[in-house]
């Protein structure tokens, strides 16, 4: 029998050889685990988060057990002093605590499964993010998608005596972040996708086949929420539903979101990457881009479109700054910067009309004629039963027998006379794009929006975001679009 001191030395050497590292990821496989299948967790004065992620789709997942007791060298399903199991959900699991003699053990259950273990002193390395990727728009074979926002810009309010606002040609003056997160886009047709059926982990999703080709990837400050990665995808199939994820640094998952490409006959090209209209990332009723280009941006957009818009914005800004812009003189809630930003968003939304078409699954889900003045949207509610007298068009009318339709309206003449004349179906702007300007700007500008009682629904999508009477967030769907690919109106 070996001396007790030598046994302890050998155990110490084995544990040290299998020690995990802080702020690092270990890639492992159940078929090549050490014996015993356990790992030492480094001691640390602060809490550590141990996270695991399955990289293989298997009906028999391994189980992960933790112990911080010096007497428990190989924790497992048999229990023991201070043994905890890391519960898995959709292939992820994590546990946070203080570790002095920490051990992580793996029970493989006989299956061959690849997995990752992460140890971090600043939250879980593996997780599903709360923020979703953002869907811009599609053509028949292209899509504009964005990562979740990061690096929120610093936008100082205008102050006395120089109320400085961004120029008409540049909505933001921020420089791009020097070290943005590393995002990877994963995309697949929804009908044939294995993405949703497997572990919702970065290592599994990144190993699956991706549809389309990323024609361009760039940093873009789309709005005040923060910088994003902007992807232009090409080579997609017409009239096809897609599932998309954005994977941050290979371990954090944003998504899924869903969207559909347009039909093969869809007439409008994409417009994006406009520094004076950073929120424009949609299909616009324009002819095909010049030869050698697949979308419109600042390099090839017709100059009469940009010059007119910049003139409007310049004149508005000059008028706006004749009024005291400081919070102490203007409003305790908003200032001239907010007013200019909302006016820019509205002006860009109405100047660059958004093309749309009914979804493949609901080809009649649009309105062929303008709504009557009392409707809460362009056929926002299509009930299978007659409306209840006195109930208006609110979300509780004929509950369970309603269909919310997007604010689509066929166009034969352009709302913006500078755009070329063509037949297309317009996705009307959300009324909130207009009312946001009214709320943020001083009364002397006399900026006014139509109301539900006076035919607002003929030119705006009404009642989707806010309620028919303006109650914030109390509309039929509460937003301009959702993660399932429904786009109800154009928010700009």
TrEMBL record:
One of the GO biological process terms: calcium ion import across plasma membrane
Presence of the UniProt keyword Signal in the record: yes
GO terms of molecular function: calcium channel activity
Annotated signal peptide: 1-17
InterPro entries per the UniProt record, alphabetical: MID1/Yam8
Keywords: Signal
PANTHER family: AEL197CP (PTHR39142:SF1), MID1P (PTHR39142)
Name of this chain's protein: Predicted protein
Lineage: Eukaryota, Fungi, Dikarya, Basidiomycota, Agaricomycotina
